[in-house]
Amino acid sequence: MASILRLQSVTKIYKKGENEVKALAGVDIDIDEGEFLAVVGPSGSGKTTLLNIVGCLDSPTSGSVLYNGQVLGGMKENELSDYRKKHISFIFQSYNLIPVLTVRENVELPLVIERKLGKDEIRARADEVIASVGLEGLGDRYPRELSGGQEQRVAIARALVKEPYIVLADEPTANLDSHTAEEIVDIMREINKAKGATFIFSTHDALVQRHARRVITIRDGLVHSDERK
Which residues are CB-neighbours of 139 under 8 A, at least 6 positions away? Predict the structure, then answer.
């Protein structure tokens, strides 16, 4: 299977006054297309920094990041932003839906911003992905009319609608009860299997770790373990 993301000797150093904090100390990771992977580690381990670099929200101090063989090093901030908008999607624990927009409008938003597809095609793609997360017929509802689990399904649909290289899910089950969390993880596993979407989770949830097919543990800015199931 082809590598979709490669981190080579990635370091990240933050300067605080005269002091330096090494958040990442030389990380090497290859992630293949279609993986269902969890990144775990205690607070201060470098996990968040790693996810920020993978998500093009930050750049490494040294080392290289390659998406589909393209080196992202040297890109300006606006170029990283454009790359992120085109190829990387995020799912947050707080859902981050826009309350004045309907379910369909929330899902359509990334495509509307991208301005590459016509109105009818945007709607058709949005309705397809809404159905894929089990919300068929709810496109005209507003977030306030949904349960927490349904809101998270909308967030998943919005993340998938632009067909990104990678979906980064930051503690996506943190605000859900255990039953709903199980349903959400099952949905993402089914989408991963059916569409080959690559999921990377940042999580402390044992449920997510149990269902992940690969678990990378970060400690002290290094890969402590990399377990495949």
Answer: 102, 103, 104, 107, 126, 127, 130
